[in-house]
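Box 3.1 A note on notation
Throughout this textbook, protein chains are presented in two layers. The first layer is the amino acid sequence; the second is a token string describing backbone geometry. Keep the layers aligned when reading.
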Amino acid sequence: MPVVGSRGELVGIVTVDDMLKRLAMETSTLTEIVSREPLRLQIVVMKENLSTLDDPEKFITESELVVASNGLRQAVYAVRDWLGEQLDAVERDDNERVG
């Protein structure tokens, strides 16, 4: 396969052997990655710009974020239910006055 420069001139040739060697290199690298222990990744939300994660007070971990999110969701549902009860009570009072 010809390799051409920006002006259309021939600058090289890529052979099937070249491509197979490159594929073998990439495959061996991938094999090394797959054979190692799996990486453990965790999302952190930084409270400020950090160069290290030495001080846990300066960031929030993914698990802490999940707990906070679940708590917020429960609080929102509780407020929604409470508001619904308050509206129902107002409607009952209005109906009793009219009725």
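The first helix runs from residue 16 to 35. The beta strands are 2-4, 10-13, 44-46, 59-61.
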